[in-house]
Amino acid sequence: MALVAYIRVSSVGQSLEVQREKMINNGVQPDHIFEEKRSGLDANRPALKEAIRFARKGDHFCISRIDRLARSATDLLNIVKELRAKGVELRVLDQSIDTSNPAGVALLQMLAVFAEFEASIRTERQMDGIAKAKASGTRFGRKAKATLDVSQQIRDMRDSGLLIRDIMTKTGLSKATVYRALAIEPAARA
Known about the structure:
Blueprint lengths: L2 E7 L7 H9 L7 E5 L8 H9 L5 E4 L9 H13 L3 E4 L4 E2 L3 H34 L12 H12 L4 H8 L3 H9 L2 H4 L1
Parallel strand pairs: 1-2, 1-3, 3-4
Antiparallel strand pairs: 4-5
């Protein structure tokens, strides 16, 4: 029996060191640790696929927490099913889950459902917050480079016969910004 570990963080700025150290402290050989920096929502996670492929019958597949492996109950249960079909058991270190026994399987399934519920609640709260902010006048996205006054100046320059490249030079704006400013209807600018 070997221990195979999968460790993941969501962004390039985050460190895998804590998870890597935890795996080594739990007996995982460094060359049996598969790691990547990708979102858990990304279906294409090459290191995860490689770790699952690498695991053999009788091995334990180790992760630090459930959310390092999957973001939905369905995804998690599919991965566990794939591992079990190979004769590989899942071990979740932080939550003390081991699917080699029925209690571990039941706990894993319950935690997966709660994790998915929590994610959907978080998304719902986020959408409510965005709607409330929009209703109170908060604008999202980048600030427009061409203000209404600049847009009027661009339109005036164009009306006087200036070429787009000359307008770009005079204003210091990109071609796309100049065209966007030209597309604004005069009534919308008032």
